[in-house]
Specification:
The structure holds two protein chains of two kinds. Chain A is an alpha+beta fold. Chain A has a single domain, classed as Glutaredoxin. Chain A is built from eight helices and ten strands. In chain A, the strands form three sheets. Chain A has a six-stranded mixed beta sheet with strand order 1-10-9-4-5-6. Chain A has a two-stranded antiparallel ribbon with strand order 2-3. The termini of chain A are far apart. Chain B is globular. Chain B is mainly beta. The longest helix of chain B has 10 residues. In chain B, a hairpin with a 4-residue loop joins strand 19 and strand 20. Chain B contains six helices and 31 strands. Chain B has a four-stranded antiparallel beta sheet, with no helix packed on it. Helices cover 8% and strands 42% of the residues of chain B. Classes of the chains: A alpha+beta, B mainly beta. At the A-B interface, helix 1, helix 5, strand 7, strand 8 and strand 10 of A face helix 2 and strand 31 of B. Strand 7 of chain A pairs antiparallel with strand 31 of chain B.
Chain lengths: 237, 438
C-alpha cells in the first residue's frame, strides 16, 4: 500500500501540472518503408509469448479481464496516456490505428474479426471517465471493436507492463519531482485469437501495410484447413 | 553537473530522433530498433571478459569501467561480476529497451542476461540460458541482435560435428526459446550457401537482414597456429553472406564473399543502399550494395593493410554519418581509419599501432572517443610477451588518436577483454518499478 500511495503521488504530481500540456502534435510521419511487403499468408508469425491475464477497467468503469480483451479476435494492443503530446508517440500510434481501423472495416476477411485495445499507462489521471472522453474520437463510427482500458491503480498496472515488456519512466525535474512527461518505448502488440503475441511493432516497424498483412496472415491461419488449400492471393487480396 | 553535459535519448525521445535523423551511429553495433542510444558522453564501458587459468577467480566476467572524465573513478574498473566458469566469453548485445545485456559463451553455449538498466554502474546477473544447443542443435552463440521484444542470436557452430554449419535462434526477452532458422546450404540464384554464420545486421526500412560467416568450434577453439598450418582446417571458413527477407525470415540472396566476412554495418541514412564488412582471411573491405535491378551485389572495394601479410582484420566501427570506418587488424596490432565518403572507393587516411594484438574497436556516437580491446579468442591470442591484455581508450580529433587511459587486464587479474558495450546513467528518469522513485 505504501508503494501504491507513493506511486499515486507521482502521478498526482504529474496531473497537477496538466493544465498547459495540450499541444497539437500535428500530423505524424510514418517510418520509412522502402519495400513491398510480403503477401499475407506467405510467411509465419512466430508465437512470441502468451499474454498473462490481469484485471483492468473499461471506459465505463467495469472490471474486465485482459484475457477477454485479447482472445477470440485478432487484437492489436498498445499502451498510451491521454495527455501524451509526443508526435511520434501515442498520437502517432492512434492515428495509425485509426487508419488501420478504416481499412479493416472495409476488408471482407478481417471485418468483425479484429479488435484494438488501448491501455492507459497512467491510471491515476486516466480514469474510466477520462479514457471514455478520449476514446470517443476513435470509437466513432461505433461498428468497430476498439476498447480503451485503464487500471484501478498503478499496482494493478505494473504486472501488465512487466508481462508485455513495456517499460516506462517518469521524467523528474531538477528538484527530483515528477513532471508531466512519461517516457515509454512505443510498442504495438499483435495478438492472435488464442492470446499469443505474434508480432511487436516498435516505431521503425509501424508500417500500416505490413501490419495489415500480418492481421490477414493471422486470419488466414485461423481458417479451416479446407479453405487453406485455396490459392492465398486469390483468397486474401 | 555531469547530467547536463549528456544527452541520453530515452524511450520516445530516442525513437523520435532515430526516425527523424538520418544519422545512426553504430554506437557501435547496436540494433537500430534500440531505445536510448547514447549521443553524448558515455558513463560506463562494460567488457565481456574471458577468464584465464591462474588469473583472479579464473572465471568469465562482465567488467565495468568508469569512462566519464568528470568522474572521480574515471579510467578505473568499478565493478566486475563473474559467471562462475569459463565458456569462452565473446560477444554481447542489448535488448530493445537497453535494459538488459545478453552475453554468450562460444565454448559452452551458455547465455548470460545482465540487468544494466536498473543501475548500469553495477550490473546484475539475472538469468542464465543454457538450452540453446538442446533446442536448436547449434552452438557458439555469437551475435545478439535486438528485435522488438525478442533477441535474435547468430550462432557459429553445431553440436553434431562442431563444424561451421549452423543457424540463428530466436528468444523472447523473457528468455524463452521461440524458433530457429538454419543458414542456407543450398543454392539461391546459382550461388551455393555454406551454412556458416557470424554477424547479423538489419535495415528496417528495406526489410533486409544481412548475415555473415566465420567458422565452427573445431577452428575457433583450436590454436590459431595449428589451424593455419592445416590445409583441411583452412577449408572450413565461411565464404558467403546472406540477404534475408526480415519479415518472412527467408534467405533471398547468397553473396560470394570469400575469406570469412565478419562484422556488418549498414549505412542507414535515407537514400543509402549499402552495408560494409571486412574479410578476416583475405583482408578486404567488401561493399554490399543494390544494383539498378534491385539485386544485392558484393564487391571488394579496398585492401586493409597488406593482405599478403594476413593482418587479420577483426572488428569494424562505422561513424554516425557512415562517412568513416575504424578497422582493427589483430596480427599487426593496428587501428586503421578509412574515409567512406565514396563507399565504392574507401581510402585509408590514418593508422596507428595500438597494441601487440588488438581486436574490438568501439567509438562513441560523436566519434571523439575510441576504445580498443586486445583479445580475439583464447586459443588465437598471441603467446608470450605479445599476449598483452588491455582496454585502451583514445581521444580522436579527426587527425590523431591520443591515449586517454588504459586498463591492464593481465595486471589486474581480470582475464582477456573482448566485446565492449556502453551505458549511461539516465538523466532524471524514475522508473515506476524503481524503489528510488517511490
Amino acid at each position: 500500500m505504501r508503494r501504491a500511495g507513493a506511486l499515486a503521488g507521482i502521478f498526482l504530481g504529474m496531473v497537477a501540472g496538466a493544465a498547459s500540456a495540450a499541444v497539437d502534435p500535428g500530423r505524424a510521419a510514418a517510418p520509412r518503408m522502402e519495400f513491398v511487403p510480403p503477401p499475407p499468408g506467405s510467411y509465419k508469425l512466430q508465437r512470441i509469448q502468451r499474454v498473462s491475464d490481469a484485471l483492468l477497467l473499461d471506459s465505463a468503469g467495469h472490471p474486465v479481464s485482459l484475457s477477454a480483451m485479447t482472445r477470440g479476435k485478432i487484437t492489436l494492443l498498445t499502451f498510451f496516456y491521454t495527455y501524451c503530446v509526443d508526435p511520434l508517440g501515442c498520437p502517432f500510434a492512434h492515428t495509425t490505428l485509426a487508419q488501420l481501423r478504416d481499412r479493416v472495416r472495409g476488408d471482407g476477411a478481417l471485418a468483425g474479426r479484429v479488435r484494438f485495445v488501448s491501455v492507459s499507462l497512467d491510471p491515476t489521471h486516466d480514469t474510466p471517465a477520462v479514457i471514455a472522453t478520449y476514446g470517443q474520437e476513435f470509437t466513432n463510427p461505433p461498428k468497430f471493436d476498439w476498447r480503451f482500458l485503464t487500471a484501478r491503480g498503478v499496482p494493478e498496472l505494473l504486472p501488465v507492463l512487466d508481462d508485455f515488456g513495456q517499460d516506462i519512466s517518469v521524467e523528474m525535474d531538477e528538484n527530483g519531482r515528477a513532471t508531466r512527461t512519461l517516457h515509454h518505448m512505443l510498442k504495438m502488440f499483435l495478438i492472435d485469437a488464442r492470446g499469443h503475441v505474434r508480432e511487436i511493432y516498435t516505431l521503425a516497424f509501424v508500417q500500416p501495410r505490413v501490419i495489415f498483412n500480418d492481421m490477414k496472415t493471422l486470419a488466414w491461419e485461423a481458417r479451416p484447413n479446407t479453405v487453406k488449400s485455396t490459392r492465398l492471393d486469390k483468397l486474401l487480396r | 553537473m555531469r547530467i547536463h553535459r549528456r544527452v541520453i535519448l530515452g524511450y520516445c525521445v530516442a525513437i523520435i530522433v532515430s526516425v527523424s535523423s538520418p544519422l545512426y551511429a553504430d554506437e557501435t553495433c547496436n540494433s537500430p530498433y534500440m531505445a536510448g542510444l547514447i549521443k553524448g558522453q558515455e558513463d560506463f564501458v562494460h567488457v565481456w571478459t574471458l577468464g584465464v587459468p591462474g588469473a583472479g577467480d579464473e572465471s568469465d566476467k562482465l567488467v565495468t569501467i568508469d569512462v566519464n572524465p568528470a568522474s572521480k573513478t574515471y579510467g578505473k574498473v568499478i565493478h566486475k561480476i563473474s559467471v562462475g566458469g569459463r565458456g569462452e566469453a565473446h560477444h554481447m548485445g542489448f535488448t530493445d529497451d537497453r535494459k538488459h545485456l545478453w552475453a554468450g559463451g562460444l565454448d559452452d553455449s551458455k547465455i548470460y542476461v545482465f540487468d544494466v538498466g536498473t543501475n548500469p554502474s553495477q550490473p546484475k546477473l539475472i538469468k542464465t540460458i543454457d538450452n540453446l544447443s538442446a533446442k536448436t542443435g547449434y552452438a557458439g552463440p555469437h551475435t545478439f541482435y535486438a528485435l522488438p521484444g525478442r533477441m535474435l542470436i547468430g550462432n557459429l557452430s553445431n553440436i553434431a560435428d562442431k563444424g561451421g554449419v549452423t543457424g540463428m535462434s530466436l528468444y523472447n526477452n523473457k528468455g524463452d526459446f521461440i524458433v530457429k532458422y538454419a543458414m542456407p546450404t543450398s543454392a539461391i540464384k546459382l550461388v551455393k550457401g555454406d551454412g556458416y554464420g557470424y554477424d547479423i545486421a538489419v535495415n528496417p526500412a528495406k526489410n533486409a537482414m544481412l548475415t555473415s560467416s566465420f567458422a565452427g568450434w573445431n577452428n575457433y577453439m583450436r590454436d590459431l597456429g595449428e589451424v593455419v598450418k592445416d590445409p583441411e582446417a583452412m577449408k572450413h571458413f565461411g565464404n558467403t553472406m546472406v540477404m534475408w527477407n526480415l519479415k518472412t525470415m527467408q534467405p533471398e540472396q547468397i553473396l560470394a564473399v570469400p575469406g570469412a566476412p565478419l562484422e556488418i554495418r549498414w549505412a542507414l541514412a535515407e537514400g543509402q543502399n549499402w552495408a560494409i564488412t571486412a574479410t578476416a582471411l583475405t583482408s578486404q573491405l567488401w561493399l554490399v550494395s543494390r544494383d539498378p535491378q534491385g539485386l544485392w551485389q558484393a564487391k571488394d572495394v579496398a585492401a586493409i593493410g597488406d593482405p599478403a601479410k594476413i593482418p587479420l582484420p577483426v572488428d569494424i566501427s562505422i561513424t554516425a554519418d557512415a562517412k568513416g570506418l575504424w578497422v582493427n587488424t589483430f596480427m599487426d596490432g593496428t587501428t586503421h581509419y578509412f574515409d567512406l565518403t565514396d563507399p565504392q572507393h574507401p581510402k585509408e587516411t590514418y593508422s596507428k599501432h595500438t597494441g601487440s594484438q588488438v581486436n574490438m574497436v568501439s567509438q562513441s556516437w560523436d566519434g571523439r572517443r575510441v576504445y580498443v580491446t586486445s583479445s580475439l579468442l583464447s586459443k588465437w591470442d598471441k603467446k608470450g610477451k605479445d599476449d598483452e591484455q588491455f582496454l585502451r581508450a583514445f581521444r580522436w580529433d579527426g587527425h590523431e588518436l591520443t591515449a586517454a587511459f588504459e586498463i591492464d587486464f593481465a595486471k589486474e587479474q581480470l582475464g582477456r577483454p573482448h566485446h565492449m558495450k556502453f551505458t549511461a546513467n539516465p538523466p532524471r528518469l524514475a522508473s515506476l518499478t524503481d524503489k528510488s522513485a517511490r
